[in-house]
Each structure stands twice: as structure tokens, then as C-alpha cells.
Amino acid sequence: MNTRKTTIRQLEDQLHQALKELKSSRAECEQLLHEREDSKREMLSVLGKNQKMKSELVELHSEMLIIQSHRDELQTVLAGFDQSSDAFDVALKHIADLEWELRDAHKQITILDSQKNNRNMSHTQSLFEELICNSPTIYTKEIHKDQIIERMIPIQASCRDDINVSVNKSCTLYP
Which regions form coiled coils (predicted)? Predict the structure, then answer.
């Protein structure tokens, strides 16, 4: 009987031990269930945040595409400005070249006008001298200086003053 009592006692001890382990396992299971619920809530929160971030990413991607489109348009406009700027620079250089040519042409015209005036004055002077020197004195006395000028080839106003001076001198020489 002693062995039975000992066996029963051992069995009771084992049962108490199993009961303690069972209670401990139950507490662990409850803790794991709480942790599982917490993890589930945390997972749902993370999924919500993930969904929100995906939506934001889609919005940012569409904004990026719009911005890239604007950038491409601006680059096209900028390329047009560069082409216009190049054409403008070429036009400015051409204008500057034409201005130099115009200045040279004006200089050449001035030189040619001066030469023409000199030839006209020289021709007028030689005509005048021929008229005065080859004309008889009596005829010179009867012709006034205004009549001489009227009979001469039309000349420029700048030469006319020189002729008037010459006519006045001649008229005083041949009274």
C-alpha cells in the first residue's frame, strides 16, 4: 500500500505539475492572443499607412509626369529662344556689316561729290576765264555780272559764291 500511496502521490504531484504547466501555458496562450491582436491591429495600421503611401505615390507620380511635360515644353521654348537668339546675333552682325558698308559708301559719295564739285568749279572757272579773257572789253562793260551768271550752265549754290567773287573782281578790273 505504501507503494500505492507513493504512486498516487507521485501521480498527484504529476497532475499538480501538469496543472501548473497548463495554467502557465494558458497564460502564455492568452498573452500570445493579446500579442496577436496587437500585431493584427498594428498590421492593419501598417496596411492603412501603406495604402495611403501608395495613393500619395500615385499622386506624386502623376504630378511628376505633369512637371516633366512642362519641363519638356519649356525646353522646347528655350531651344526656340536659343535659335532666335542665334538668328538675332546673325542679324545684328549683318546690320553692323551693312552699317560699315553704308559709312564707306557715304565716304565714297562725299569724295565723289567733292571731286564733282571741284570739276564743276574748275570747269565754271575756265568757262568764266574764257568768257572774260576772250571777250572784247566793250562787250564786257555792257554785260552785268547777273547777266553772265544767267547765261552760264546752272551750277551748284556753293560754286555760285565763288563765281560771284570772280565776276566782281573782273568787273572791277574792266570798268
Answer: 1-42
| Location of C-alpha cell 551750277 | 155
User: Model confidence over 131-158: pLDDT tens digits?
Assistant: 887 765 544 445 555 565 555 545 555 5
Cβ atoms of 146 and 160 closer than 8 Å = no
Which three three-digit cell numbers place residue 143? 554785260
Neighbours of 163 (CB within 10 A): 19
Q: How far apart are CA 115 and CA 55, in angstroms?
A: 88
Angstrom distance (rounded) from CA 20 to CA 25: 8
pLDDT in tens, 48-78: 999 999 999 999 999 999 999 999 999 999 9
| DSSP secondary structure letter of residue 153 | P
Q: Are 153 and 112 in contact (CB under 8 A)?
A: no
